[in-house]
């Protein structure tokens, strides 16, 4: 009998009000791992109410910023102490390589430590207005109850990217994790209580997007929504937030260009292309799914990428030798394979992959795929596939590739491979992408802010700036003049 998990509200597990649960599956083996509570608007209301009370309660509201930082540091320590358990839990739930999860778990405490250090630097400034008798200063206040809605591709990391800055700034949080991966996020909330966060500061309501997710977005007592996921859902959330004038931070999709110039080290570039699109089976928002290779290195790059793609070891994500696990659920694999079919019907050729590999597990595996004969106007080069599918296209000039790279609805990330320093800076300046990597791909740090262009999102994640997104900036004026307050109807010169 698989385990069953309730919502985590007010510091404890709480059964769903309507009593319903749904199952979560291991996408490699198809075994049912556990069932999670199917949240409704009543459960969301209970969680937002608990978070609202916690926000008002002296144990949180009056806690010194340094103590707040201390709790975050303690949570980072606990994540580190439970790293292996969390890594296995998440790997089994979404099919990510255990090896990659262990890597994520070694950096995850750093997210907590970074924002722990910022918790007592949530400061305003004194503004030198032109009125000499006026003292004007700003202060940053927490917003209140923040709603966080997160996806399945990296649940712990993407949830922590919201939780840590929101808590550092003094907010309380209700998280709605993806229906495919509730477990590690629930465990994270347990660890927050163990770390000493007052009950109700971190709450989790599991369930489906259209039910629990929409109820959280629409709850009148939510002060802000922070979302990572698809562009379609993000635009719905933005509309709902706009109607109530609450803030939203949206981290959405991408169709990122990875550009290899003729002066690049082609061996390094090939590894960067492979990492960009096949790591995490391409299920990352930053996937380098559009590869542009200068015509003079196109054949060599193609050959190197295809050769590595063919030798990728596909299989059980828990095994050390595995390099590519399954896609996270059946609909995701169907989506990937139908995009490859669509590409073929649009005129693309499959250089390698394009099928289900031969793996002795029943899960949702899909081969690393390289498409050629594509151009930047096809649906496979314009829409986010979110799978291990690279489209490789030749180009002739820097101007041309810049135009092609920027000719997309998205703008999350871009890679540039060149030995030419001036070109590296020129490209970095002109690419419409929130993150530009030169001679590397996928580098990331909680310290480095990310802000997508165009349909890739709104607002900033990571860095000091992200913490500021969870604050309200207030301006305070104090009259220090001893003279009587002037009659307002007498004009002063
Ligand atoms: P999604 O955007 O629908 O789901 C992400 C989160 O939003 C989940 O927690 C979900 O329950 C919630 N959600 C869904 N509808 C909602 C609504 N109306 N109101 C509030 N919350 C809602 O993405 P999904 O269905 O998991 O994946 C579909 C596609 O989205 C993928 O194939 C991929 O292309 C893209 N995606 C992109 C991600 C990225 O980081 N860029 C992450 C996850 C998905
Ligand atoms: Mg699962």
Annotation keywords:
alpha/beta, binds 1,4-dihydronicotinamide adenine dinucleotide, 493 residues, Aldehyde Dehydrogenase, Chain A, domain 2, binds magnesium ion, 2 domains, six-stranded mixed sheet, Aldehyde Dehydrogenase, Chain A, domain 1, seven-stranded mixed sheet, single chain
Notes on the structure:
- With 493 residues, this protein is α/β, with parallel strands linked by helices.
- The protein folds into 2 domains: 3-252 and 456-476, Aldehyde Dehydrogenase, Chain A, domain 1 (3-Layer(aba) Sandwich); 257-438, 3-Layer(aba) Sandwich (Aldehyde Dehydrogenase, Chain A, domain 2).
- The protein has helices at residues 41-56, 58-61, 65-81, 83-94, 98-118, 155-168, 183-195, 209-218, 231-243, 266-278, 295-311, 330-345, 379-382, 398-406, 421-430, 463-468; strands at 3-5, 7-9, 12-14, 21-25, 32-37, 126-127, 134-142, 145-149, 172-176, 202-204, 224-228, 247-251, 257-260, 290-294, 349-352, 369-372, 389-395, 413-417, 435-438, 457-458, 471-479.
- Strand 8 (145-149), helix 6 and strand 9 (172-176) form a beta-alpha-beta unit.
- The structure holds 1,4-dihydronicotinamide adenine dinucleotide (NAI) and magnesium ion (MG).
- Magnesium ion binds next to strand 4 and helix 4.
First-residue to last-residue Cα separation = 82 Å
Spatial order of the strands forming the largest sheet: 15-16-17-14-13-18-19
Q: Tell me about the largest β-sheet.
A: 7 strands, mixed
Q: Helicity, in percent? A: 25-40%
Structure ligands: 1,4-dihydronicotinamide adenine dinucleotide, magnesium ion
- How many H/I helices? 16
Strand content: 15-25%
Q: Identify low-pLDDT runs.
A: none
Assign the structural class, choosing from mainly alpha, mainly beta, alpha/beta, alpha+beta, or little secondary structure. Answer: alpha/beta
**In the CATH scheme, what's the topology name of the largest domain?**
Aldehyde Dehydrogenase, Chain A, domain 1
Give the full name of the CATH homologous superfamily of the largest domain. Aldehyde Dehydrogenase, Chain A, domain 1
Average predicted confidence as pLDDT: 97
Architecture per CATH nomenclature, i.e. the level-2 architecture of the largest domain: 3-Layer(aba) Sandwich
Query: How does the overall form come out from the CA principal axes?
Result: globular
Number of separate structural domains: 2
What Rg is obtained from the alpha carbons, in whole angstroms? 24 Å
């Amino acid at each position: 009998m698989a385990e069953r998990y309730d919502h985590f509200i007010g510091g404890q597990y709480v059964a769903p009000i309507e009593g319903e649960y749904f199952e979560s599956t291991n996408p490699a083996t198809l075994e049912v791992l556990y069932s999670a509570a199917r949240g409704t608007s009543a459960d969301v209301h209970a969680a937002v109410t608990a978070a609202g009370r916690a926000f008002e309660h002296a144990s949180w509201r009056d806690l010194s910023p340094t103590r707040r930082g201390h709790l975050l540091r303690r949570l980072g320590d606990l994540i580190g102490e439970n790293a292996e358990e969390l890594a296995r839990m998440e790997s089994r739930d979404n099919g990510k390589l255990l090896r990659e999860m262990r890597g994520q778990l070694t950096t995850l405490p750093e997210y907590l430590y970074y924002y722990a250090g910022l918790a007592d630097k949530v400061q305003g400034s004194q503004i030198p207005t032109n009125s000499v008798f006026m003292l004007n200063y700003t202060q940053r206040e927490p917003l209140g109850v923040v709603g966080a809605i997160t996806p399945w591709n990296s649940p712990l990391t993407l949830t922590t990217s919201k939780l840590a800055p929101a808590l550092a700034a003094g907010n309380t949080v209700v998280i709605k994790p993806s229906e495919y991966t509730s477990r590690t996020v629930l465990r994270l909330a347990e660890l927050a209580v163990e770390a000493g966060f007052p009950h109700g500061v971190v709450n989790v309501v599991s369930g489906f997007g259209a039910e629990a997710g929409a109820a959280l977005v629409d709850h009148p007592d939510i002060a802000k929504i922070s979302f990572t996921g698809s562009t379609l859902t993000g635009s719905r959330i933005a509309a709902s937030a706009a109607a109530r004038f609450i803030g939203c931070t949206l981290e959405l999709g991408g169709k990122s260009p990875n550009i290899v110039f003729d002066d690049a080290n082609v061996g390094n570039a090939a590894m960067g292309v492979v990492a960009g699109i096949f790591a995490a089976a391409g299920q990352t928002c930053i996937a380098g799914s559009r590869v542009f290779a200068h015509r003079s290195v196109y054949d060599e790059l193609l050959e190197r990428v295809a050769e590595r793609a063919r030798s990728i070891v596909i299989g059980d994500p828990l095994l050390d030798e595995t390099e590519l696990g399954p896609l996270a659920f059946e609909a995701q694999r169907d989506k990937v394979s139908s995009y490859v079919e669509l590409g073929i019907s649009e005129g693309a050729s499959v250089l390698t992959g394009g099928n289900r590999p031969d793996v002795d597990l029943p899960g949702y595996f899909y081969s690393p795929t390289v498409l050629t004969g594509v151009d930047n106007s096809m649906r496979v080069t314009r829409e986010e596939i979110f799978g291990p599918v690279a489209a490789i296209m030749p180009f002739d000039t820097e101007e041309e590739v810049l135009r092609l790279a920027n000719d997309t609805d998205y703008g999350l990330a871009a890679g540039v491979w060149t030995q030419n320093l001036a070109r590296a800076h020129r490209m970095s300046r002109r690419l419409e992408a929130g993150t530009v990597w030169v001679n590397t791909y996928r580098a990331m740090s909680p310290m480095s802010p990310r802000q997508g262009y165009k349909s890739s999102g709104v607002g900033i994640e990571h860095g000091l700036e992200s913490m500021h997104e969870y604050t309200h900036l207030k301006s305070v004026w104090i009259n220090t003049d001893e003279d009587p307050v002037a009659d307002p109807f007498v004009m002063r010169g």
